[in-house]
Amino acid sequence: MDNHTYILATSKPWHNDLAKDCLHIDDKFIWAHDPDQLDSLLKSAGSIRYIFFLHWNWLVPINIWQRYECVCFHMTDLPYGRGGSPLQNLIVDGCEKTKLTALKMVEEMDAGPVYTKVPLSLQGTAEEIYLRAGELSFSIIDWMIMNQPKPEDQQGAPVIFKRRGPEQSRLPQAGGLKKLYDHIRMLDAPTYPKAFLEYGDYVLEFSKADIGNDKLTASVCIREKNDQEKT
Fold first, then answer.
1. Cα maximum dimension of the chain
2. Could you tell me if 192 and 126 are in contact, meaning their C-beta atoms sit under 8 angstroms apart?
3. Helix, coil or strand: residue 132
């Protein structure tokens, strides 16, 4: 009989329904939304087998990943694409598909041994891709709990991605409609800065892009610049 506890550590809205389903179906799962809640759960939980980090926004302290088996999910075929903004960097590079990699957390970012990799399509908006990756992540979680796999070291030379900054969300001025379409869709997800242009005192933010018949259509939200954007 499995008496272990499993922690789902995720802060993104596209994981909410899947996490709630896990909690509803199996009381062995507990859910952490932020570092303070995670610390509190670690003090009160029983025998923890895995901590699954799904799109976690914070650096995990050494005292956690050294003490517990921490599993994270990365949207590249590691060691290709270690580092930040993997989805956006993949789309900028012209990739149409990738691998979702489940790996053990170690001190060096995205460098830990790999439990498994599964194919992941990069079609659609960022939100649609994140939802797709979330479903795959929870399938991997079920598989890991059932099979208890031993992770294997990554093979090959690492390729490092740089985390993108807010200014890189600005719409490109050249490159064709397909490049504009990819730029808008790769940023179209909750909590992400939308593709944008500045027009005087206003910021135009783009979402819901569609392309076809030699034209691109998108929804545009126009807002006034905030004080920081005016400087």
1. 65
2. yes
3. helix
User: What are 67's two structure tokens?
Assistant: 């003490």
pLDDT, position 36: 94
* Number of C-beta neighbours around residue 39 at 10 A: 13
Q: 122 — alpha (psi -120 to 50), left (phi > 0) or beta?
A: alpha
* Cα 59 to Cα 157: distance, rounded to the nearest angstrom: 24
Q: What size, in residues, is the chain?
A: 231
- pLDDT tens digit string along 143-177? 999 999 999 999 999 999 999 999 999 999 999 99
Domain that holds residue 103: 5-161
| Helix/strand/coil for 34 | coil
| Closest listed residue to residue 50, CA positions, set 25, 22, 78, 89 | 22
At residue 27, does pLDDT exceed 70?
A: no
Residue partners of 4: CB distance under 8 A and separation at least 6: 28, 46, 47, 48, 49, 50
Q: What is the pTM of this model?
A: 0.90
Query: What CATH number did the domain enclosing 213 receive?
Result: 3.10.25.20
User: Which CATH number covers residue 113?
Assistant: 3.40.50.170
Per the structure, the count of domains in the chain is 2
Give mean pLDDT, residues 94-111: 97
In degrees and rounded to multiples of 5, residue 31 shows phi and psi of -120, 125
